[in-house]
Amino acid sequence: MRDHLTRGGLSRRSLIKGATALGAAGLILPAGVRRAAAEPKRGGILRIAQAAGNTTDGYDPATWDSQFVQVLHTARCGYLTEIAADGSLVGEVAESWEASADAATWTFKLREGITYHSGKSVSGDDVVASINHHRGPDSKSAAKPIVEPITDIKADGNTVTFTLSAGNADFPFIMSDYHLPILPSADGKIDATTKDGCGGYMIDSWEPGVGAKLTRNPNYWKPGRAWFDGIEMNVVLDSAARQNALLTGEVDVIDPVDLTTVALLERAPGIKILSVAGTQHYTFAMDTRADPYKDNNVRMALKYALDRQELVDKILQGYGTIGNDHPIGPNQRYFYADLEQHSYDPDKAKFYL
Question: CA-CA 20 to 30 A from 170: which of 37, 121, 161, 302?
């Protein structure tokens, strides 16, 4: 399992957090930073350099496919649910939800009083239109596969009911996907070009492939969020250029960092390294339908023949965790801590062969 790394100036201790070290939530202070700064203060401009962002990026959530748009629009928008830093699911636009006995019908109750940047109140009709934007035979949305099981959506005031083709206990988690923001609607449709949203930041300007500037939403409903007055997001694809921008004080945070430069940045004055356990994993795939991997003895031999800790230490510079033959990382809720580890053992590898 590979960890996500972010570099930031010590004077900018309150970093936004999400899918990577900066990631999707866009507005949450990491727990470790809260402990280090017991009394965070609002203000300042957070300047970020990211290795993501395309000239073809836009406002239509059906087209979002990069980390840059994920961070940008999650800061701008709200979702029915969100995944908290500890991996648990919490309500965002939705205050609560409940399922039928077969988990094929889900009813969400929306929070009262949430408004868009324009001042319009978030409604159940907006939820219906926002999700329907990704449905239908003509949909080209990246989110179409995850909403395809939805057969019907109905709103009754601040209550929205989803009917699925089959039971799905994880449906509330699906509603946190970054392609599914809740946007203002009119006549049953959303405006896929709107800058409006109900998130903690408003987009002042955005040049796709170059960068964006955001200002804090003064009417944001979440306490303890959106600490900065503004955020400047810059697309810097070259890793050396990102690192130089950080070292010279042009930006406060860079993401990601070339692992070969970690040691250099660790020694640089005024630089704070944050390591966040991620979900990215590397595998050695073995096709068990074909020789020689049909033979479980061969597979077992390979498991013991690889010094996995050495791979983590030398390739990932120590910023990773041994995955032990399954993709569930230790930071995820379904991780099984008691699973027996396959440690490096050349003698056992020879035994299986």
Answer: 121
Please write the tens of the pLDDT for every residue from 254-264. Answer: 988 888 888 88
Buried b (16+ CB within 10 A) or exposed e, 82-99: bbeeeeebebbbbeebeb
Instruction: Place 282 in a pLDDT band, splitting at 50, 70 and 90.
Output: confident
Q: Could you give the maximum distance between any two Cα atoms of the chain, in Å?
A: 70
Q: What's the CATH code, domain 78-190? A: 3.90.76.10
**Using CA atoms, how far apart are residues 49 and 237, in angstroms rounded to an integer?**
9
Assess if CATH 3.40.190.10 describes domain 3-75+199-277. Answer: yes
93, 103, 154, 268 from 100: Cα distances, Å? 21, 5, 15, 56
Phi, psi at 166, each rounded to 5°: -155, 165
Q: Model-level pTM?
A: 0.81
Taking the domains of the chain in order of start, what are their residue ranges?
3-75+199-277, 78-190, 296-352
Residue 15 is classified by DSSP as -
Pair type for strands 253-255 and 230-235: unpaired
Residue with tokens 């796709």: 208
User: What are the distances in angstroms from CA 318 to CA 5, 50, 169, 232, 309?
Assistant: 12, 22, 36, 31, 9
